[in-house]
């Protein structure tokens, strides 16, 4: 049977926003169809309709030529449709193998839980993926990349007819991406329908056969990958040519005094890290997954305990036991996982932006709502946050706009931020919004902030940072000025023991 998933005239309306309008295209078995578009283009909404998480207001979905209506994700899974979202849907306290077989744990002839068979079945899939994961390991103890791979293996185990991947490579290393692409090619060879959502254009050209481009909830183009180029895709997504993003940046050219000096920093995961950053400087951090970059950021923000070394902020030796202490001293962090660690998703834009300065907005008994509104209005205007209202729930925003809300929080007029730490600030963000954030980083530096910029995309770090701290296995292996940095030289340091 030839497999297919088709959208006909799909429309979706939220209060004040038309998320999708007349979307029609067909994804066929034995091919990889890439879904491309800026944040807010409608990709996530379309995946939610496909998975049964939401219902379309207009149009129909056809599976293998027959109209389907999924009342919830369980219906979709039962019909053979799986969506692997950016937000992991795992139970941290349970084992890898239990997470891979939810609701389908094997039993003995006596009806008892067959742990040995579960371990054997899970091990076969893990071995197929070529991953060094123990099936009995508690999922919550795995790093983000391996948790993502467990999510993918869970969908693979279901033998779904249709599998959609939503930014699956964001937390993965190059080696893990290669493993994932081999699995996708195998799914394609088996005649499965594969829908692939990514902002990484190089991946699209590597894995996709066809490309559907969305913009502002509308279908712009359907393209054959072999017959298109990067500039055509960018123009279709953004509606303009963005040219060489990095050459167009307006950078800060002068630095002030040293804001932060770190000497031989040690934590549970950081073995030895020393560096300094000046006012107006962008200090990049590069390294492979597990290098310790995020752990350094968490230690500076008081989120992880420091076990050795010294942190000197504006000439004063400091030890932050909590993030609140760090914030009070002018240190701010945009965390790697913006949804789980950076935002209160069920709260409004206004409340999220005012969160760290509520005590400065009025008296101990009353919050000045006018000031709260002012802070949010300023952030929405300054960072071009796409929203019908500052009272909109943050969870309903696109990833790029969520990131802008966090930036608005740490740079509003009530904050005294002097050190801004950005951990993977462009992860899962479209090319147009990336260009905006790059310029924001440069603007923060021109305003006198010291900016730490952590990214797994080496091109970003090399082109944005004034100096680059390279880490491997918890310690600093080198510090490279931008003028001397190449991908080869930075990677050599990132792999140095």
Would you tell me the overall average pLDDT? 90
Beta strands, count: 20
Query: What is the molecular shape?
Result: globular
**Sequence stretches where pLDDT stays below 50 over 5 or more residues:** none
Rg computed from alpha carbons, rounded to a whole number of angstroms: 23 Å
**What portion of the residues fall into strands of 2 or more residues?**
15-25%
Characterization of this structure:
It is built from 17 helices and 20 strands. Helix 13 (369-382) packs across helix 14 (399-410). The protein is globular, with a radius of gyration of 23 Å. Helices cover 33% and strands 25% of the residues.
Topology:
Elements (H helix, E strand, L loop, with lengths): L3 E11 L2 E12 L2 E7 L5 H9 L6 E6 L2 E3 L4 H6 L2 E4 L11 H5 L14 H15 L14 H14 L4 E5 L7 H16 L3 E5 L3 H7 L2 E6 L2 E7 L5 H9 L19 E9 L6 E6 L3 E5 L6 H8 L7 E6 L2 E3 L4 H6 L2 E4 L3 H5 L6 H6 L14 H14 L16 H12 L8 E5 L7 H16 L3 E5 L3 H7 L2 E6 L2 E7 L5 H8 L3
Parallel strand pairs: 3-8, 3-9, 6-7, 7-8, 13-18, 13-19, 16-17, 17-18
Antiparallel strand pairs: 1-2, 1-4, 4-5, 9-10, 11-12, 11-14, 14-15, 19-20
Helix pairs in contact: 13-14
């Amino acid at each position: 049977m030839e497999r297919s998933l088709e959208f006909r005239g799909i429309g979706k309306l939220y209060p004040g926003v038309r998320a999708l309008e007349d979307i029609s295209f067909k994804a066929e078995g034995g091919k990889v169809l890439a879904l491309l578009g800026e944040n807010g283009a409608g990709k996530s909404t379309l995946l939610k309709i496909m998975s049964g998480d939401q219902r379309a207001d207009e149009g129909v979905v056809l599976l293998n030529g027959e109209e389907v209506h999924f009342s919830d994700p369980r219906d979709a899974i039962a019909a053979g449709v799986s969506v692997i979202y950016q937000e992991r849907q795992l139970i941290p306290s349970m084992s890898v193998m239990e997470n891979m077989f939810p609701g389908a744990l094997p039993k003995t002839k006596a009806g008892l839980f067959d742990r040995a068979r579960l371990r054997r079945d899970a091990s076969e899939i893990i071995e197929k993926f070529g991953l060094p994961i123990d099936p009995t390991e508690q999922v919550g103890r795995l790093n983000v990349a391996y948790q993502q791979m467990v999510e993918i293996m869970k969908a693979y185990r279901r033998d779904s007819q249709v599998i959609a991947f939503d930014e699956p490579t964001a937390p993965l290393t190059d080696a893990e991406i290669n493993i994932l692409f081999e699995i996708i090619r195998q799914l394609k060879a088996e005649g499965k329908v594969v829908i692939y959502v990514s902002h990484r254009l190089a991946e699209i050209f590597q894995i996709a056969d066809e490309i559907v481009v969305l913009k502002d909830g509308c279908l712009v183009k359907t393209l054959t990958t072999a017959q298109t180029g990067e500039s055509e895709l960018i123009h279709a997504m953004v509606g303009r040519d963005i040219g060489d993003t990095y050459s167009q940046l307006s950078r800060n050219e002068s630095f002030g005094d040293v804001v932060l000096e770190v000497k031989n920093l040690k934590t549970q995961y950081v073995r030895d890290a020393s560096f300094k950053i000046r006012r107006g400087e962008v200090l990049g951090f590069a390294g492979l997954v597990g290098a310790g970059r995020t752990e350094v950021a968490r230690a500076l923000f008081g989120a992880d305990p420091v076990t050795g070394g010294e942190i000197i902020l504006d000439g004063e030796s400091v030890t932050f036991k909590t993030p609140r202490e760090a914030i009070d001293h002018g240190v701010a962090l945009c965390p790697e996982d913006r949804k789980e660690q950076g935002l209160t998703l069920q709260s409004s834009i206004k409340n999220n932006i005012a969160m760290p300065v509520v005590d400065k907005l009025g008296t101990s008994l009353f919050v000045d709502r006018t000031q709260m509104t002012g802070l949010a209005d300023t952030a929405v205007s300054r960072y071009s946050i796409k929203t019908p209202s500052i009272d909109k729930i943050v969870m309903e925003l696109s990833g790029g706009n969520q990131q802008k809300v966090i930036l608005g929080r740490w740079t509003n007029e009530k904050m005294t931020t002097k050190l801004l730490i950005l951990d993977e600030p462009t992860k899962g963000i479209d090319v147009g919004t990336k260009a905006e954030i790059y310029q924001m980083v440069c603007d923060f530096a021109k305003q006198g902030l010291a900016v730490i910029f952590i990214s797994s995309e080496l091109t970003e770090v090399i082109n944005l940072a004034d100096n680059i701290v390279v880490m491997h296995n918890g310690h600093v292996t080198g510090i490279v000025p931008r003028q001397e940095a190449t991908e080869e030289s930075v990677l050599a340091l990132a792999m140095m023991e």
